[in-house]
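Please complete every field before forwarding. Incomplete forms are returned to the sender.

SECTION A: IDENTIFIERS
Entry label: holo-414
Bound molecule: MTE
Molecule representation: SMILES string

SECTION B: INPUTS
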Amino acid sequence: MARPELEGEWIQGWPDRARARLMPSKDAEGRTIYARTPLTELEGLITPTDAYYIIAQLNMPDPIHPDDYSFKITGLVDREVTLTVKDLMKLPTRTVRAVTECAGDDGEFFNWQKKGGAKPSRLKKQAESGGWNQMVVEGQKPSVDELLNTIPTTCLVSGGEWTGVSLRDVLKLVGVKPSATTVHTIGFDTGRPDPTAQYLSAGRTDIEVVDPGVINYDKALELSKAMDPDTLLCWAQNGEFLQHVHGAPLRMVVPGYSGNWWVKWIDTIELLDYEPECYYQTQYFVLADTPEAPRKPCKELGTKSIILFPLDEDSPLPQGEHVIRGLAWSGKGAITRMEVSTDDGKTWNDAFVEQHHDKWLWRRWSYVWKAAKPGKYSLKARATDEAGRVQPQQPWNFQQKHFDGIIPVDIEIK
Ligand SMILES: Nc1nc2c(c(=O)[nH]1)N[C@H]1C(S)=C(S)[C@@H](COP(=O)(O)O)O[C@H]1N2
Ligand SMILES: [Mo]
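SECTION C: PREDICTED COMPLEX
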């Protein structure tokens, strides 16, 4: 098998399996701003925090100590307030287990489906340092190939346990005026969006990119989703206080919506009666057929499954029984059915879906494949969610967001 062996390590004096490690890229100051989850090396449904994917679109901000931290709620509220994390801790605590998936996760598969060529791989690692934030210097445009070869888009998804309070409870506390429609959340991180991110997701450098200048990261969530009891303001992840890179002291958690809605490093929450022009909502993180077409913000994730065993790299496999397994999740809640095909989608068989009570968390599924005859096989998996949505939901779009397509795994049985 072509998969790299996990090398043994000594942990507290005992020989152990190597820990799964993030696949990181750093900014000019050496701070990790982009890191992929080693999906194929992990077991279980909660991604260890040290292996959780990381994305900072602008500059990684300086950390603020929780004792020195507060955030404001302003705009169309009965009482404008400044709150600390300790204030929030006086409200009923809520924990939600949920998948975080970057809108750009697996985006390069869109291109591959359209144009063919080398199939993207979850085993592909980017260089330890470097990446798009260091590639573009004034006046220089890297080629599409250079970009695509630098940073793979796979493995930008993780599963976590998020603890905080329902945003709804906080909004009830301050009193939302009847005219409010939008919850505008502003992070304290700033920077000038790197156009390379747009080139990278579009797979082209010949598109026009708006330069908004130096901005704060911000998003404008519709009030109805903000009032969903599972939309949280969180101070903890996986049983510990948030790490800085994941948005400490306080971040938003918006289960079902792609990662870009989960605003980190909250500075201000503003209630509005209109949708403001947020760069990461109207320009980037949008769905449109072409760069010229009207752009629609990407919100709910589709219905998606991935095969984690076997991978193309595991081929050839011996004749006999193999367990095909992977994970599945949806932007509309629980996965209710998984089907597997071992004949390139001609026939489908129901797979076993592991049950649990967390509708926003992915589910593990498996299928016992009796590979009786030598030959070449194309394995496929497709998920159905509780809303009846069957994978895939998201058509091709120029920024390659919300990919939830069915990708075959090609295996030879010997
Ligand atoms: N303030 C702020 N929040 C942010 C971002 C950011 O750059 N700034 N990146 C978003 C994006 S694109 C994603 S995918 C998620 C990633 O969350 P994580 O780094 O904790 O995995 O955070 C979102 N929240
Ligand atoms: Mo993202």
